Amino acid sequence: MSNKIIAFCCEHSAYLAADLAGKQGLHYPENVRLIRVPCAGRVDVTHILKAFEKGAAAVLVVGCEEGACQHSTGNTRAKERVNYSQTLLQEIGMDNRRVEMVNVAPGAPHKFVRIIKEMNEKIKEVGEAK
Amino acid sequence: MIVAERKPMEEIKQMVAPYKKLLLVGCGTCVTVCWAGGEKEVGILASQLRLARQAEGKEISIIEATVERQCEKEMVSELRDKVKQVEAVLSLACGAGVQTMAGMFEETPVFPALNTTFVGMPEQEGIWTEMCGLCGDCFLDRTGGICPMVRCAKGLLNGPCGGTRRGGKCEVDPEKDCAWVLIYRRLEKQGRLDLMKKYYPPKNFRAVKRPGKIQAVKA
Amino acid sequence: MAVSFKETLKTKDFIVTAEAAPVKGSNVSKMIEDIELLKDKVDALNVTDNQSSVMRYPSLGTCLLVKEHGGEPVLQITCRDRNRLAIQADLLFAYSRGIDNVLCLTGDSIDVGDHKEAKPVFDLDSVQLIHLVHIMNSGKDLVGNELDGAVDFCVGASATPSSDPLEPQLVKVGKKLDGGISFIQTQAVYDFDELRSFVKVIRGMDSKVKILAGIVPVVGARMAAYMNENVPGIFVPQYLIDELSQTPKGKGVSKGIEIAARMIKQIKEEKICDGVHIMFIGRESRIPEILEGAGLL
Q1: Is the C or the N end of chain C the one with fewer CB within 10 Å?
Q2: ipTM for the whole predicted complex goes beyond 0.95
């Protein structure tokens, strides 16, 4: 059983927010593993599925706030891919709440911590990974 | 190009249920373009199958491969070694590709992961529409380049049925245009409406003797 | 003995036909009742062919019943369910049993019916079907083989005056006229200006063809709205919907009958066209009330 969360973090926003959370001494759950990506738009459906195959209980794709993407549409594309991943999970009988797209600004460490905690709550509902 | 879409997950899962070692084969041509059976879709389906088996506590090992054209024996033959390692093949190609695989490797069951739907073109990103019914007796010279055999829901050759909806939409689907209204407008634009006024006798549905086979001459 | 429809078309000033819709099942007693009731009140009973793509008792079988009970049947043939072999065989059988009027139709789409997974045939279209009947009338089959015993059908076709756009529909009607038809039966009409201009166009192409206006009584404002929304080629104008919505509950059918009778009367008095074809599906037994209201009984 695993309660691991894989969080794909955009290096222009989410990753900076996570860094700031650390510097400010904000505590967030230890079961999250951050993967730094150049843009949320870099995260592909296959990456998300692979994370689950490797035992993740949940996957977060964390990108810039809407309208603030460094690559103009990376975060909206990421949102579409996350939606598609949810359909794919549903097809094989998995709870599609296990994957989610969230937008976080670089200067919003509290929001970053909150979304990790919220995902942890969700894992309690949908169950850990086998 | 040939357009296909993936079969429902349940159907695929049932087909491959008895097997623990699978080869998933994509095709790099038409079905790659229509997002149904390219390298990426092979990866996604493989992931889904592995996750589904994990959830059931059953094992599976999947080899992923994509050939340039699965409807060509030479290109499919590259897969010989991989086929030897598995119990069954799941093909993400059109019906021609599945059959080429199945014919090349007769000892191994080959299953279709896609439903081959039609010959069409991309209307806009993600939307493909049917354009050709492969009738073997092309009629497009008389209809301004719009095929009534497939774009009219009833395949009528002498004009619209009485069911055209307001605004020139199809009786069957208000989202679709009536092919004969499109034909009328295009021929009108070209000053060739006389073509539509001509009588066309019943179509030769045996223009292609099924199963089709042609001998072409190489130029 | 009923007067042949071919003769009626030639001689009668105002022609009235009614639609007879076959039942779903083998119990034909209701159809026989309707046939007995209507056979002497209308010039012909026009029998639908798996109408709205819903599987029913066959048009051919119902036409035989009409014939056996002394009525004059018009056999509707659609191209949806039979290929060119089956259609020719049915025509031979029909003629051999005294059924000699045929209405050539494309047929509704399979998708609107109750067997949505069936294979749509459409081997022929309605224009080709008209040509086919004439080829058989000349003593040959579609591919030129001699028939042992020819046929002699009176051929009709349908048209939709309210098509939008109308031009492609008119091209098609023109091809039906070129193919050789004795009568046109229109889709339900409610707008007489539309009907008048349609008749004028048809007359310009063929002065002899008889035009029967399709009459479908509307029995409620909701039915009218439904038809406008869902039945291709039909448009009930607002003033009729208003009239129907002011009708007290339970009086819808009588109101529909009254309006239909009024329309027929007007068509006859103003000589808008050569007759009417009444389609009152499921309420065939009330057609006499329409005829009475129109002064045709």
Answers
A1: N
A2: no
Please report the beta strands in C94-233, taking only residues with DSSP state E, as ranges in sequence order.
101-105, 154-159, 183-188, 210-215
Q: How many structural domains does chain C have?
A: 1
Architecture of domain B2-117: 3-Layer(aba) Sandwich (3.40)
Apex A50 CA angle, A45 and A55, nearest 5:
135
Sheet holding B110-112, edge to edge: B61-67, B21-27, B88-92, B110-112
Q: Which of B161, B199, B202 sits opposite C124 (nearest CB)?
A: B202
Give the neighbours of chain C: at least 3 Cβ pairs within 8 Å.
B
SS3 A129: strand
CA–CA dist C242, C100 (Å, integer): 42
Q: Which domains does chain A have, with CATH numbers?
A: 5-126 (3.40.50)
Instruction: Tell me which residue range forms the domain holding C97.
Output: 5-219+271-286
- Taking alpha carbons only, the member of C89, C85, C34, C97 closest to residue C61 is C97
Report residue C222 as tokens.
Answer: 């909701």
| pLDDT 10s digits, B137-175 | 999 999 999 999 999 999 999 999 998 888 999 989 989
Nearest residue in chain A measured CA to CA from B54 = A130
Tell me what pLDDT residue A99 has.
98
Answer yes or no: do B54 and A53 touch at CB < 8 A.
yes
Answer whether residue C53 shows pLDDT above 70.
Answer: yes
Closest CA to B44 of B6, B89, B2, B93: B6
- Is pLDDT of C36 > 60? yes
Q: Name the DSSP class of C99.
A: -
| 17-36 in chain B: CB under 8 A from chain A | none
Mean pLDDT across C98-111: 96
Closest approach of B198 to chain C, Cα-based (Å): 7
pLDDT at B216: 87
End-to-end CA distance of chain C: 19
| C53 contacts C25 by C-beta, under 8 angstroms | no
Q: Residue type for B215, please?
A: Q
Physical contact, A and B (3 or more Cβ pairs within 8 A): yes
Residue A13 contacts residue A63 (beta carbons within 8 Å): yes
Element containing residue C9 per DSSP (H, E) = helix C5-11
Low-confidence ranges of chain A (pLDDT < 50): none
pLDDT > 90? residue C132: yes
Give kind and range of the element (H or E) at residue B151.
helix B148-151
Whether residue C233 has pLDDT greater than 80: no
- Which CATH number does the domain housing residue C80 bear? 3.20.20.220
Tell me the average pLDDT of chain C.
95
Q: Quick check: is C251 in a domain?
A: no
Return the SS3 of B66: strand
Question: Could you give the percent of chain B with pLDDT greater than 90?
Answer: 89
Whether C200 is covered by a domain: the verdict is yes
Integer Rg of chain B from CA = 22
> Which pair of tokens denotes residue B193?
């409406």
Return d(Cα C103, Cα C158) in angstroms, integer.
8
Q: Which of C67-81, C230-244, C278-292 shows the lowest mean pLDDT across its residues?
A: C230-244
B22-64 pLDDT tens trace:
999 999 999 999 999 999 999 999 999 999 999 999 999 999 9
In a domain, C197, yes or no: yes
